[in-house]
Specification:
By secondary structure, this protein is α+β, with helices and mostly antiparallel strands. It has helices spanning 12-15, 41-53, 69-86, 103-114, 128-135; strands spanning 58-61, 66-68, 94-98, 118-122. The protein has a single domain (12-135), classed as Rossmann fold (3-Layer(aba) Sandwich). A two-stranded antiparallel ribbon has the order 1-2. The mean pLDDT is 89.
């Protein structure tokens, strides 16, 4: 199998895929698994859900609050906008997400994907040395 062209300018992740013979066999025979050649999964998971069911539908529930799909979409779009406009994120750039499991981490994760980045989510308890390997560029 040959990979199709990518929109990623930063090819760090793609360049580190295992050799093709090591890949599992991927079968996309079910109609629900038919996707376009290019797909932003955040749009598919979030924007399309809001379009289909409306923004008022409950999405994230915590002991102290509730976010609707519309709330999550709005905040994910804000994150994406800041990443692109203020930080100059380019498609394929990696973004380290390190924080508690809460709605803002979900919004940040989806925002990174919406902006074309690669979300690298880690546990908040990892120390600097443990974080260096997954986010560092090759020497």
């Amino acid at each position: 199998m040959e990979l199709s062209l990518s929109a990623h300018v930063d090819t760090f992740c793609r360049d580190r895929l295992p050799a093709f013979p090591l890949w599992p066999q991927l079968h996309y025979e079910l109609p629900d698994l038919t996707y376009p050649d290019r797909l932003n999964c955040a749009q598919h998971l979030l924007d399309d859900a809001v379009e289909r069911w409306g923004g008022d539908r409950p999405c994230l529930l915590t002991p102290t609050g509730r976010w609707s799909y519309g709330d999550l979409l709005r905040r994910a779009n804000q994150v994406a906008q800041v990443l692109v406009e203020d930080f100059g994120l380019r498609p394929g750039n990696r973004v380290l997400l390190r924080g508690p499991n809460n709605p803002w981490l979900v919004a940040a994760w989806l925002g990174v994907l919406k902006a074309g980045g690669v979300a690298v989510t880690t546990m908040p308890l990892l120390r600097a040395a443990e974080l260096a390997e997954p986010v560092s560029s090759p020497s």
